[in-house]
Specification:
about 525 residues; mainly alpha; Amino acid/polyamine transporter I; two-stranded antiparallel ribbon
Length: about 525
Amino acid sequence: MDAFFDSVASVNGVINKAVWGLPGLILLIGTGVVLTLCTKVFQISRIGHWWKQTIASIFKKDSSSTKLTDKKSISQFQALCAALAATIGTGNIAGVSAAIVTGGPGAVFWMWVAAFFGMMTNFSENLLGIYFRRKNENGEWSGGPMYYLKDGLGKVYGKKWLKPVASALAVIFACLAMLASFGIGNMTQINKIVLNMDSAFFSKVSLGTIPGTEISIIHLIIGLALLVVAALIIIGGLRRIARFAEVVVPFMAVVYVIGSLIIFGFNIGSVGAMFTSIFKYAFTPAAFLGGGIGVLIKMTMTQGFKRGVFSNEAGLGSSVMVHSSSNVKEPVKQGMWGIFEVFFDTFVVCTMTAVVVLSTGYIDLASGAPMAGINGDTLVSQAFGQQFGVVGTWFIAIAMLFFAFTTVLGWSQYGSKATEYLFGAKGVKVYKVIFVLMIVMGAIIDGGLAWDLSDTFNGLMMIPNLIGVITLLPLVIKITSNYVDRRIHKKDVAPLLSYDPALQAEAEAHLDEE
């Protein structure tokens, strides 16, 4: 049996390196570059417009962004929070610090680059998600890469041979998303929560292990507690997840940013050296890495790109499944929420982590090297502990708890929608039970092959998704141009809102509400 698992691990390692190595990252970033150019750098050229239509709109009275129009959908802001719940997780804290320790300060620059182009990838995914969504048997919106693959790639071009290919790609994506939800979206997050909570609050408490096993009783108790809370929220469906995320995500993100800025303020004298190191080592290998330009590409760029993609998930097609449940009528408008999602996740939250790591002295800014014995997974906790004492360590443990737990909630919705596509609405009930029970598994098992496999499933999602996005690029450009002509240039042209004539007519009838 050990030989079998060794073989699986070996094959998975090869696939994982291809998916999350330079080939996969070039595909992801390259798609973002093409989309950025073809939409005339929309994230910059229309920055004032998308800012007003997204985050600024929630402060307006009776804004359509926060208004709930029916019981079967969620508001645009709730869709954002639910998507951020799934993307803002352990990767924003431990992942970013680990990237800096491994690839040097320059990794932060390439993380920003990945996010800049990822904005338009996420924009395009969400635009297509809204355009190709439909109502399920319960009257709820269902959308995602599987739908714009099947009904977009499979029908828009009118090629008969494309239909079975598109249907197969849709099924493959749904299967990968469902499998990834158990690993990346559940067990790995729960495992991080348990380890951090144990270290921060129960390091001096020993309840031993369950007789005859190596299972920690404390880990089991924490896992059971998380299972109960998660079950109460997940079983209630997307609206309950969205309401929870709407409160928790903004609060925790703002508190984390404020805490990071306080640490930055304590170390304001290093601001020049910090940003100098980011840009310097983005193009020059950090001294501790050794070697030449090859190491720069392999370590610094790859770490930055990978962390950016891991953090905001632009290109994986995952958050589309939540954004598609919004009550929005305009595909482009939900696409703009996708731009803000990437901006906030990477340029705000991940950058704050980088600020904490680089401004507290744990990284030698002159050489780019970390201090001896530094562990990227716990570096942020050490930095907060340095400034705030044990309270700082507790704060990071709690932040990791909420960030990772909301990731679990968000991914439960992704898995639910993937399951619905494969097995129908009835299959979702079975999926949710299994998903909740897997929380305990994540709390008590040790990391290993399951983690690596789920990481691979997560990355493989991008292949069918990006095939759909790239081939539907002409449609993305057409819908975006149509929106700009109508909403910005005030031209009298018919809107493009849905692939389905009935849904198009329904959306047009209520378009003035936005």
